[in-house]
Design goal:
The protein is α/β, with parallel strands linked by helices. It has two domains: about 70 residues, no CATH class; about 200 residues, Nucleotidyltransferase, domain 5. It is built from twelve helices and six strands. Strands 1, 2, 3, 4, 5 and 6 form a six-stranded mixed β-sheet that branches. Helix 10 links the parallel strand 5 and strand 6.
């Protein structure tokens, strides 16, 4: 029995006597009251207070303390407590922190800067502009640049179904391939028709590229959906290639207006509100879901994955209609 349990003969003999005495059966305990080692918090009365002083975010403590400038892990905290005379392990520190109600927390984006007094009026103006254009059957589009993507066998966020223990192997580092470079997807989302167009650039994200994407969308889709259009409303972020301060953006739009014989109106969203731009959650988010876990090996891969997404959307619409 000693070999099976790993206990000494004396310990087993004492345990057998306790079981035969019948004392433990009455109390439903495995040992008598007071048995075992005392808790560290009782052994060291000031331990809990010392630990709280170290982790309390409002108590910064000594500015010279290295713990103020390092990650407050259980091992770091245990090391500091040991220098104060508390001989405990990091496991004990973790248990005490849990009892005190502490846990690992990530930063929470909740503090907002003061917004402009006319911010709500700006959104109402944009919304009324879109509604007005729709009432007269005029096209309204949302434009933006998607995140630049590195071309090659690189990790792409997301998961895909594969056989167990056979993950897709990709490069260990994300250094861009000088031969393949990056691609710049620029999208145009038709708010009224709920349709989109994406042009994939292979150079830089410039205002000329942005306007040329709008031009391509118009000749491929826009003129077919709006044959009697006289105006075109564009909603965009206030920065980037289509920013409100970019002169080249304005020059290229004027050229496009003269070419298409359309009155082009532009509505820029206030700073920090790009997530309200329709294209972000109506087009780009679904493209990201479609190619999650898929390394963008070539430029053709990017184009095909975007194309497959659009076919899937059309198929889903047909299923709903039927």
């Amino acid at each position: 029995m000693c070999i099976a349990t790993g206990l000494s003969k004396r310990t087993l003999s004492t345990g057998i006597k306790e079981l035969q005495s019948g004392i433990l059966s009455k109390t439903q305990r495995t040992r008598n009251t007071g048995g075992g080692r005392k808790k560290s918090s009782k052994k060291y009365p000031g331990l809990v207070g010392a630990l709280e002083q170290l982790v309390d975010p409002t108590a910064k403590g000594d500015p010279e303390s290295h713990l103020r400038w390092t990650n407050k892990s259980t091992r770091h905290l245990t090391g500091v407590l040991k220098t104060q005379g508390y001989n405990i392990s990091y496991v004990t520190t973790s248990m005490l922190l849990h009892e005190l109600g502490y846990s690992l927390q990530v930063n929470h984006k909740a503090i907002e800067k003061s917004s402009h007094e006319d911010r709500n009026s700006q959104f109402l103006f944009i919304n009324n502009s879109i509604s007005g254009m729709h009432n007269y059957g005029q096209p309204t589009i949302s434009v933006d640049t998607k995140k630049k993507e590195i071309i090659g066998n690189y990790k792409n966020n997301g998961k895909e179904l594969r056989k167990q223990k056979t993950p897709r192997r990709v490069n260990g580092h994300d250094f861009p391939d000088p031969r393949l470079g990056k691609v710049v997807p620029y999208g145009v989302y038709d708010i009224g028709k709920n349709k989109g167009w994406v042009s994939v650039g292979i150079s830089a994200d410039t205002a000329q590229f942005a306007v040329n994407t709008i031009r391509t969308w118009w000749y491929k889709m826009g003129v077919l959906n709006y044959p009697k259009a006289e105006d075109l409303l564009i909603t965009a972020d206030c920065g980037g290639s289509n920013g409100y301060r970019v002169k080249l953006w304005k020059v290229e739009l004027q050229k496009l207006s003269d070419e298409l014989r359309l009155k082009i109106h532009v509505r820029h969203f206030p700073p920090g509100t790009s997530k309200w731009n329709k294209i972000e959650h109506r087009l780009f988010s679904y493209i990201s879901k479609n190619w999650q876990g898929q390394p963008l090996i070539t430029r053709e891969t990017v184009v095909n994955l975007i194309g497959v997404y659009s076919q899937t959307v059309v198929r889903r619409k047909e299923e709903k209609m039927s």
